[in-house]
Amino acid sequence: MLDSYDRKILALLQRNAEMPVAEIAAEIGLTSTPCWRRIRKLEERGYFKRRVALLDEAKLNVGVSVFMAIRTNQHSREWSSAFVKAAEEIPEIVDIFRLAGEIDYMLRVVVPDIATFDRVYQRLIQKVEIHDVSSMFAMETIKSSTELPLDYA
């Protein structure tokens, strides 16, 4: 179970994974050594999947987000594995979710334009049979966060 110090450490590192231990310690009211030990313990316990840099989509010319709602009429393990493998091999597909309900999978695709999205779509359907696809283009990103709520930990 996490205590208040652990939650504060995680909150700070979610915002800036490069924050120096001394700054984290000062912010939460600990000295550097106990703070460092807590960070190491959190790492050992698997609270960090990895540390990454979040890049600017517009500067990288992939500012168009397309959400693909996919329905399948095949629910075998073989089809699912083939679908996931095919989607994972396409770098423009950055998120893949398996859903409950009318839609089986939701994908987020980042591309520079609609023509590029069509090429991504064509690559996917060449690799695996899909029953139905509905694509939605994001007009504006209102909220996008990598920070997870910590109240439930």
UniProtKB/TrEMBL annotation:
Keywords from the UniProt entry = DNA-binding, Transcription, Transcription regulation
Pfam families in the cross-refs: AsnC_trans_reg (PF01037), HTH_AsnC-type (PF13404)
What SUPFAM superfamilies does this protein map onto?
Answer: Dimeric alpha+beta barrel (SSF54909), Winged helix' DNA-binding domain (SSF46785)
Which top-rank group of organisms is this from?
Bacteria
Q: PROSITE patterns under this entry?
A: HTH_ASNC_1, HTH_ASNC_2
The record places domain HTH asnC-type at: 2-65
Q: Which Gene3D superfamilies match?
A: 3.30.70.920, Winged helix-like DNA-binding domain superfamily/Winged helix DNA-binding domain (1.10.10.10)
InterPro entries, per database record: ArsR-like_HTH (IPR011991), AsnC-type_HTH_dom (IPR000485), Dimeric_a/b-barrel (IPR011008), Tscrpt_reg_AsnC-like (IPR019888), Tscrpt_reg_AsnC/Lrp_C (IPR019887), Tscrpt_reg_HTH_AsnC-type_CS (IPR019885), WH-like_DNA-bd_sf (IPR036388), WH_DNA-bd_sf (IPR036390)
Q: What name appears for this protein in its UniProt entry? A: Lrp/AsnC family transcriptional regulator
State the organism named in the record. Salipiger mangrovisoli
